[in-house]
Amino acid sequence: MAFQRIVVIGGGVMGQGISRVVAATGTEVTLVEQNEELAKRAMEGIGEHMDREIEKWGLTSSEKKAILSRITPKWDVKEAAKVRMVIESIQEDIEAKKALFRRLDEICKPNTVLVTNTSTLSITEIAAASNRPDKVIGMHFLNPVEKIPLAEVVRGLKTSDETFTTIKQFASELGKTVISVSEYPGYVTTRIIVPMLNEAMHVLMEGIAEAEDIDTAIKLGFGLNIGPLSLADRMGLDEVMSWMENLLKELSEHKYNPCPLLRKMVRAGHLGVKTGRGFFKYDEEGNRIREERIDELKTL
Ligand code: NAI
Known about the structure:
The protein is α/β, with parallel strands linked by helices.
């Protein structure tokens, strides 16, 4: 790998997955969260995720140990001064991301590449918050990062060829098939999947079929390995809603207007796997609790 150590900022669903995948290739990772407690929780999350794979014989304890030994939790963004690549994976909020890139630009060495994992926001706009827009780029992984073999490498208007080639190479070394995208809201994956998730929520809200049957229909009908409502639960309903709102704002297309049921669920704190409840219920390890039907959905 071209980078001996990188910094990942944000230890949520995606930051944990990215840290783990990078560390598995032998690169050291500093995982930066907002405070010590959250950094500790992110490390526990990575460990627990791997424990579940060990139980299913998908990983060995020694692999887990080696991966964890290469991830150092921290809670000071100044760690970014020590590396040549930073991957940002904080929540999908343009102002928060711009503030972070402004700060990173002050802290980092002039040749450090700043990468964002944003799903829908403008790379050009994030890059403009820094004085190095040529070294800012999108590398959009999908969840779960260790399982989905794809990365969209997204160029902003001023991203240099050198930055693009470096990041494309980096993503390939992580074992990802890379597709190149010119910046446009939602890129390829989010843009196409979001209307399908929204439509599945409308079908549920309108009482046309139950959640389980909607997922079964789409899975079996189109040969997919996950249904849209389970997928939304896995992505995080708050994240999905913010993607829709960003796409709606950028493209003014009604199809991105979040389904009222989604809004209600987010307001109620039912965010999917991460809170144990979304369109379906989940245990602490993220496994579906199948016997329970969530009838209250309609009255939310
Ligand atoms: P999340 O909400 O699970 O995690 C975000 C984390 O960032 C939180 O733990 C928060 O404490 C931390 N954070 C916020 N500000 C910070 C700061 N200044 N310094 C350090 N840590 C900070 O979000 P998630 O789902 O991991 O998404 C992160 C990014 O990845 C978003 O841009 C999202 O659009 C993108 N993404 C999400 C996917 C998904 O399926 N959830 C798929 C692909 C991309």
